[in-house]
Write a structure and sequence with these properties.
Helix content: 40-55%
Radius of gyration: 23 Å
Oligomer: single chain
Distance between the termini: 4 Å
Number of strands: 8
Number of helices: 9
Structural class: alpha/beta
Number of domains: 1
Strand content: 5-15%
Largest sheet: 8 strands, mixed
CATH superfamily: P-loop containing nucleotide triphosphate hydrolases
Order of helices and strands: EHEHEEHHHEHHEHEEH
Bound molecules: adenosine-5'-triphosphate, magnesium ion
CATH class: Alpha Beta
CATH architecture: 3-Layer(aba) Sandwich
Strand order of the largest sheet: 3-4-2-5-1-6-7-8
Length: 305
Amino acid sequence: MKTNAFFLGKGGVGKTTSSAAFALALARSGKRVLVASLDPAHNLGDVLGVKLDGKPVEVEPRLYALEIDLNFWVEQYLKESRDEMATTYSYNLTLNLDSFFDIMKYSPGTEEYAMLWAIEHIRCNLAGDYDIVVYDTPPTALSLRFLAMPAISNMWIAELTKMRERILKKRNTITRINPDSPVASSCVDKDDDKVYGKLGSIKRRLDLLASLFGKESYVAVVLNPDKLSVSEAHRIKEELDRIKIPLSAICLNKRGVSTASWVLDERLATSPMFEFDFLPGGLHKRDDLSHIDTSKLVADFLATI
Ligand SMILES: Nc1ncnc2c1ncn2[C@@H]1O[C@H](COP(=O)(O)OP(=O)(O)OP(=O)(O)O)[C@@H](O)[C@H]1O
Ligand SMILES: [Mg+2]
């Protein structure tokens, strides 16, 4: 059995509804489940009928939920980076860290990193108390960016590591030729070099997340019987292929909502499809989630290794 499940898909297709219904069904079948919303515009608490925050709240026996506080994780990420830079460059008093971090807060990639460290926190500090962690995700663009982040960042880390190795090698040569050179007092050995060590520790953190997404997760794409959500599901599948995250399932939600014609892109047919009926009366309270029949999806999830 995989220990994480992600529900991806276009805005409004039913990611929150499907992940909550799936988590509820698993908890009612006897598993301990944490359902975590990664969407900065949270509504998981409304769907479960419980007020949520960044820490797990018991919703009912065996079912716990949280909504990550993205701002907290952005601040945390900036603080870590600031502390790191202040120590590494303590000699450089001309570097104005305050203005640097004001810019970094709004830089592309900051939200994605914050999201990754929030998931790392759930994986390392919370997941041990549960059999399964279910993630309700933000709309496609942000989700795909944070899922791709470990692979992209690791390419950077690999290049920076090579560069650092070259610097250390050059320092070593200079020190051998001229032991009195100022370089001789700086670090020449990988094992003692702070920067080299830091690159290694970032790589280990990113590898853990890459393995969480690519190996330990059941990734489902939710769509509706309409052309737009099918096209978006297809784009998600292409992107997941590119970053080597297997697509475990397609969830066709709101079956019967319209009579408009639509076809499932055959390129999506490689994953099993599970269908949830449109509930014309809507969903108003937690128990309404049990009318979304996730039993086949749950069975498929429990059968995965
Ligand atoms: N099977 C269903 N039958 C009837 N209504 C549904 C069904 N699934 C979802 N809905 C309704 O559709 C709306 C959108 O659902 P939901 O919030 O789960 O989508 P989402 O993909 O999480 O949206 P967002 O991208 O905004 O996070 C909600 O009002 C929800 O109650
Ligand atoms: Mg949602």
